[in-house]
Amino acid sequence: MNQVITALIIALSCILIFFWAPILGVVYSGSLELTHPLVMSDNSVNAGYVTGYSADLGKIRDIELSNSQPEAQMMGAVSFRMSLNFYHGFLKNDMSLDIDKITVIFVSPSGSETIPQKTSRPLTKPGWMVIRKESILPIEHANEDNIIEPSESFEILVFPSKPLSPMSRFIIFIQLPDNNKIYLSRSVPGTISSVMYLN
User: Fold this and answer.
1) Whole-angstrom distance between the N-terminal and C-terminal Cα of the chain?
2) Does 15 reside within a domain?
3) Is 32 part of any domain?
């Protein structure tokens, strides 16, 4: 009897995990912050958890920055996380993303620029790179490659040409290999600190 109850609980849990995605996706408009790791969206990828960094930092996590003009009262870099939209991937059999094939465009009051991917350190302006890879599942670890898989989350650091002043708005456009786009629109806080959570 206990085995039957256990099997029913497991089956019900699987059903709930799979079907909560479209409900939350509709309610929260596909926001990664509120529905992670599953959302209903036209894109195969979710992006969010945006963090800003002051323009006087010489290092973010273990990434050294080439910062010839540090400015403590400006925001100099931004990071965000990306993961697969499992619900979309399951339906369309699209279960991986080559991060090396995305295009990152940064739009600010200074203008629009396509940020090139960099692999060498220190990170120079303008440039972006993967600074952290994590597994969503506690029993697994992220691979060393730049392919995002269903159980992985990548953190991307964007280092634009010009720092942003307090209260200015910016947009990060992420062009995916399948021609879908994701955009993250945020504002710089009125008070600049070393690390600023922009969600």
Assistant:
1) 47
2) no
3) no
- Nearest Cα residue to 77 out of 89, 86, 87, 66: 66
Number of domains in the chain: 1
Cα–Cα distance, 171 to 35 (Å, whole number) = 21
Q: Which two tokens stand for residue 106?
A: 């940064």
Does 34 fall in a domain?
no
Return per-residue pLDDT of the chain as tens, 199 residues. 667 677 666 655 544 444 444 333 333 333 444 433 333 345 678 889 999 999 999 999 999 999 888 999 999 999 999 988 765 545 555 567 899 999 999 999 999 999 999 999 999 999 999 999 887 766 555 567 788 887 788 999 999 999 999 999 999 999 988 888 889 999 999 999 999 999 8
Range of the domain at 147: 45-84+93-197
Measured torsion, CA atoms of residues 198, 160, 151, 88, in degrees rounded to the nearest 10: 80
Structure tokens that stand for 2 in this block: 């206990």
Instruction: Classify residue 154: in a domain, yes or no.
Output: yes
